[in-house]
Structure formats: structure tokens, C-alpha cells
Sequence to fold (690 residues):
Amino acid sequence: MKHRTTARARPSWFDKLAMKDDVPKTVMGGAVPSSTIAIAGASLEMFDAGDGAPVLFLHGCDGLDPGHRYVAKLSDQARLLAPSHPGFGRSTLPDWLTEVDDISYIYLELLDHLRLSVVDLVGCSIGAWIAAEMATKAPDRFRRIVLSAPMGVKTGPSDRLDIPDVFAMPEDQVTALMFHDPAKGRLDATALSDEQLAIRLRNRESLALLTWEPYMHNPKLRHRLHRIGCPVLFLRGESDGLISQAYLGRYAALLPDARCDSIAAAGHAPEVEQPEAFAARVIAFLGASTGA
Amino acid sequence: MKAWHFSENAYHHLPPRETYDSIRVTLPNRIYDPEKGAALYDRFIDEWLVAEEEGLGIMLNEHHQTATCVDPAAPLMLAALARLTRHARLLILGNPISNRRQPVRVAEEMAMIDILSRGRLECGFVRGVPYEIAAANSNPVRSNERQWEALDLIIKAWTTHDGPFSHEGRFFHHRMINIWPRPYQQPHPPIWISTTSPSGAARVGARGYVQATFLTGFDGTRAVFDAYRRGWRGAGLGEHVPAHRLAYAALVYTAESEAAARAGAEKLLWYVTSNKVPRHFANPPGYVPISANVAMLRGAEHPLSAFARGASVDAAIEGGFMFAGTPDQVLRQIRKLYRHVGGFGHLLIMGQAGFLEHDETVAGIRHFARHVHPALKEEFPDTALTSDAPSAQHAGVA
Fold:
């Protein structure tokens, strides 16, 4: 795996951020270097590895762990471009940013900045929501799209949440809904540094900012999804307690060329619980042209 | 020192504590009996009227979806009190403006109360405790910023008299703002803000509003008041902060005998011990700074939470959360806190909670008003200047 690194040293925005007590002080994990790119007032932590056709990978609720196996598997086959969303990981959160929709514009600009006219797009959870927003705005820029455990639309009746309210239940209940094996999701604060804990907490805070109201969806999105003409794979872990099979099907039905698939023994983050199966499914769908 | 009778209008006819997960947000309202509720409103209003009769101020607040405070629209209660009272100052502490979607409506309500009461409104604003977030469906992130934008807009609505203005802010938008009525007091009613954090208090100090802090005990209160004084000085408002800018809320019960005081104080503890709230409502993401959450995951605990687990009257008095006893004892306890925190000018008296009956509540109000308050007024005049508490000095018993 090759890394494109532009800023191993402390990035210039760090000092400004470090003044605020809500920004983690050191780079997560520290093992894999990331560069930073400034877009529309946000400094984005950017992981960029591998060769081949470019794949923009948009992480889920818990942020990007560049050391994870699925990242290696995907970057073996393609050039994997994976930003941390504004407010997640080490990326800054501009004051004006309030919605997932805002992030989709930042990432379209990121593609311009990287001089990538057409890419494959893979998103997980909130990353899949961002991906769907992007594709409705610039459908011609995406060749194929994978949406894993996507949220973002409201498909059911007004008196019932499509997605259980993760902010109104105990943490162990959230973990049980999100993981096939809840032991993998349980927070062990003693195993994490203060910085890692801070990143985890900040990810959750940013998730709340973006998904609080309307809860986990943009009412406009469903009326735009028909614009996405390229083939789209909707994926979910079979044990996902947040994104149901029925929800996935109703979501996919809003797009002209979508199919659904599932991954066994996985919850809301199949890329984390079943990295091989997840990567295999994604690579197979993106197809031959993603090979170098 | 001014003293205020504060009652949360709690509904205490609850099933056993172990039968519900939370007294807030999710407790089904089938438990609330409208007949009993109506009788309680009558009773609590009567108690406020006793407070007025005894020369105390009247204080109320607002919470939502909770049995601890069945006053989800404090301006309505305030409107009733404005007509039922004649001379008491009326303190609402406060309007939860991070959770109110229309600040201009809040400005209208408060102006109306000020007119109804002919200028007796003391107008408090709060961000709202974390358990209000779910009940208000309010985003917990950036709620501080929302509070300050709302406050500035309300003040501008109160003080603009030449026809409509517009506001296109970060959180709120409103065209054609031109409220009727405008406030009775000029330029506007006194503004109070409650915060229990030093960073918030410094900002309040810089504006010179009245700063109230709730159940923060000896050291917590000192930190809040010191921060207020720093903010005050930093903004060039003067070298010393007058006592009437600072307020402290505590559980207070005064009686003729120690035994009677103890009995009343035991019942008042309900205010702290009844607050059964699961973590996901008590600490929504974004409500407190990330650094505070890291500290909590490392085992840090809010002093009041630590206290609530093993609450006792002695521990409450020791911690500075409660003043209870005979008039002499209560006076000594208040004096001790006053000296430790550098002084304050308002005592907000949580004088009713849970199973404290009407007669007991009234007796507590009267004893305090007749046998403690006169001495407090004499010893700690409103205009006294407060000072940064010397950090090395621990509270000595006077």
C-alpha cells in the first residue's frame, strides 16, 4: 500500500483548534499518516492510499479507522480516498455547517480539488447518506455507488420512526442494535487514550448535530434520488437494528437502478464486523474497471 | 440580601421509584391525576402568596415532561401571579431560550407580564438543563450559542420603539419585529442568567446581568462567582461586583426547634433524590464540552450527583447545598457560604419539595422571613461589594 502524505508534521490548523477544548489533541491511532485539505473553510483529514481507479470512501458514524482491514482490502484494488467528515476524526467543523447536505457540497468540491471528474462512491451509514446527497446533485460524476446501511430518507408513517432513536436509549442498547456481536462495540474507556476518547465523543456530538432534526433524514432527499442513474448497490448487515431490511428496500426503490444485498453476521457496520465479506462485495460490484 | 421563595410545583404522588426508569421525559402522564394536580396548583400559588405577605420575592421556573416540575409554561403561571400579587418582585428563572423556537414570542410574553405586574418582573434566561433537550426536541449541540443569540434578539425587541426591525442570524430569522406591548420597566426588566459553569459565568459577568447558580456548594459557587467577577472586571464594569449581581439557590428550611427543622429538611431532600434520570437524557451529546465527558469516562463525577447517591441533611449542609435548622443555625450556615464564595445578594430558597406539606412549607417560609431574613438584610446589604474569595481560606464557621 502506498500513502500519499503531504503533512506528517502538525498541520497548520492544529494550533487554532487546540485552543478550543472540544478538539482532540493528537492524531488518531498515529500509525497511518493522513494529509489535510482545506475546503470551504473546513480542514479535512484525508486518507489516500492505493492505485487504480479512484474510490471515494465515506465512513460511518464512528469515524474512519485507516488501520482497519477493510481499508487495506479496498486500497489493494483501487485508489481509496477517504476523508474524515467535518466534525469527525481530525477534521474541523465550520460554524456554518449544520446539515449532511452541507457536507455533500464540500465533498463535491473535494473532487474538483483532486481533479477527479468521475469516481466510484462507497458510503457507510451517515457516509452513505452524504453519498446519496452528492449523487443527487452531480449524478454524472459517479460511475457506480455502494450505500451500506444508509440513512437519509423518511419512508414510513409520521407516527413511527424509521430508525430507532439512538439518542433516547442507554448506550448498551445502542450497541446491541448496531452490532451483530455487541462485545465488539462496547466502549472500554480504559483501553483508549484521552485523545481517542475525545475523538469518539466528538464523532457522536457531530452525529447529533447532523441527525437530530429531522431525525436521521433530509425530507428533500427522497424527491431527488431519481436523478441517480448509475448502478447502486444497497447493502446492510443482517443484524443491523437501525437500518431494517424493509427500510433498505423502500430506500432502494426510490432509485432507478438499485439492488439490495446483505452481509451475514454483521450489524450496522459490516465493514467493521465482516471486513473481508464487505470488501469482496464492494469490489465485485464496482467491477473489473476498478482494478489497476 | 434579598430572599426569594422558589417552588417547582412538583407532582409527588408517584408510584415506587423502582417501577420507572426516569422521572423525566418518559414517565407516562397517566400517573398524573388532574384533580390532584389542580389542588396542587392552588396550594403552590397560596404558598407564593404567603411569601409575598412575608416580604419575600417570588421565583418560579419551567421544566417539561417531568413530575419534578409541573410548570411547563412558566409565563402562564407568572401571568396568574402578576394579578394575584401586589408588590412582590416576580422572578422567572428562567425562560429556556435555547429551546424556544421564537425568541420574539418570549419577548412579547415577558413584556406582557411586566405590564400586568406594573414593572415587577425580574426576567431570567436559561439554556435549560440537559433533560429538557429530548422534551423540546432541541439539538443539544450549539445550545449555548443559540441562547446568546436569542437573548440579544429579545433585548433588541424590548428596546426598539420606532417600528419594525429584522433579524437574520445564525439560528433565528424574523422580519418585521415590532412587539406590543413593550416592557413597563425601562429600558427593560432586570436580566438574570443561571449557569453553573465558570466559563458561562464569565460571559454573564461581562454583560453585568444577575448571575444565579444552583446547588453548586462551597467551591463550585466560588468558582462561578469568581469567574463572574473576572468577566465583570474584564469588561470594564468596575473593580468590584455589587452583591445584588450574584444569586445562590439552595434548599432552605427554618423552624423553631432543631427537630422540626430536621424533619422539614429531610422532606426537602426529595428535590435532589427524586431526580432519577438515565444517562442518555442527563447527558446528551454536545451538551457539555468533550473534555468534561472524557473526564466523566475517567471516573469524574458532578459533586451534586455524588451527593445525591447518599443524600443526607448533614451532608447537604456540609456541602453547602442546604441551609436548615433554627434561625441561628441557618444564619450561621448562610454566613459561612457567603464568606467562602466572596458574597452574594440573592438567596433563592427552594422551600418546597416532594412530601413537604402545605403547613410545613408555610411554617418554613414564615420562620425564615421573620427570624433569618431581617438579620441577613442588615448584615449583607444589597449594595455590599463582593470580592474574590481568598483561595487558601477554607470556610471557617463564624
